[in-house]
Design brief:
It is built from eight helices and 14 strands. By secondary structure, the protein is α/β, with parallel strands linked by helices. α2 packs across α4.
Length: 295
């Protein structure tokens, strides 16, 4: 008796190949022609754009590199960081991306333009959490024109050969590449994070915007029980302008979709119970304590 063939099922998650690790690449090899000065060195609140981008990426990734042209390898603003020097012919960001993929072909690269002054922890958290390692890349959709944003995106190892073929066919625009090669496109929760600056007027406007905002600070956050499950992590260090635990929880609830109300939680700051109106300071350690079954 001939039986029906048994359908082939997908392998259990534990048997699937592990996703490649993700390293960071901050693109700082541009000519800055419209700005008429080096965009990597533009400062907001005492930190250059390049410095801030590297620090932000380093909070999430084990290694972060700066992409430069050959003539920039000794530049004082760049030489302090691990560098990947352009190693393939051509111009523009596609060369920096391909050079990183060639330098470390076993890893994926979270590629960031250095001129994203409003880039946030929320944006990087979302990008990494919703990454699809089976796609050529994972990228945000621009809030301005609806097109994929290639310079705040994760480029997977398999994109290396596709990018080489694309450039060999005279393709130069990484955005058009993403539109044609099956990238996973995300809707950004932080819609301002991808705003870049290219001209002196845009830099002045961005500087005024920063001057009008509360200063950001880094806090250490710990999650337990249900909140750990919903956040997908047990702890993190993030940059925030929240001034109280109440403000901070509202921000995190929007980011991670926490289902617990403030009334169901206790909060501790630096290992001591605190009120929701407690004033937070840079470096504080904050713990939101959910109800525990049987407690």
């Amino acid at each position: 008796m001939t039986g029906h063939p048994t359908p082939t099922s997908a392998p259990p998650r534990s048997q699937r190949p592990a996703a490649p690790p993700v390293f960071g690449l901050v693109l700082a090899g541009g000519l800055s022609s419209r700005m008429r000065r080096d965009k990597a060195t533009l400062e907001y609140r005492g930190k250059s754009q390049l410095e801030r981008a590297v620090e932000l990426a380093a909070r999430y990734l084990p290694e972060v590199f700066v992409s430069v042209r050959a003539g920039q390898a000794a530049d004082p603003s760049r030489v302090r960081y691990p560098l990947i020097v352009d190693s393939v012919p051509g111009e523009g960001p596609i060369v920096g991306i391909r050079s990183a993929l060639a330098a470390r072909p076993e890893v994926a690269w979270l590629v960031l333009a250095c001129d994203l002054p409003f880039l946030s922890d929320a944006a990087l958290s979302q990008l990494l959490a919703e990454r699809d390692s089976t796609a050529s890349a994972t990228a945000f959709r621009s809030a301005h024109d609806g097109l994929p944003e290639p310079l705040c995106a994760i480029w997977e190892p398999q994109s290396a050969a596709e990018l080489a073929a694309y450039q060999a066919a005279d393709g130069r625009c990484p955005r058009k590449f993403l539109m044609r090669h099956g990238a996973k496109i995300l809707e950004p929760r932080d819609r301002r994070a991808l705003d870049n600056i290219n001209t002196p007027d845009e830099y002045r406007e961005a500087s005024l915007s920063f001057d009008g905002e509360a200063s950001a600070m880094q806090l250490k956050i710990q999650y337990y029980a249900l909140m750990r499950e919903q956040a997908g992590r047990s702890d993190e260090t993030l940059e925030t302008t929240a001034s109280t635990p109440a403000d901070l929880y509202s921000e995190l609830k929007a980011r991670y979709g926490f289902t617990l109300s403030r009334e169901q939680l206790k909060v501790a700051v630096n290992s001591e119970f605190a009120s929701w109106s407690h004033r937070l300071a840079a470096g504080d350690s904050v713990v939101f304590i959910p109800p525990v079954a049987g407690g």
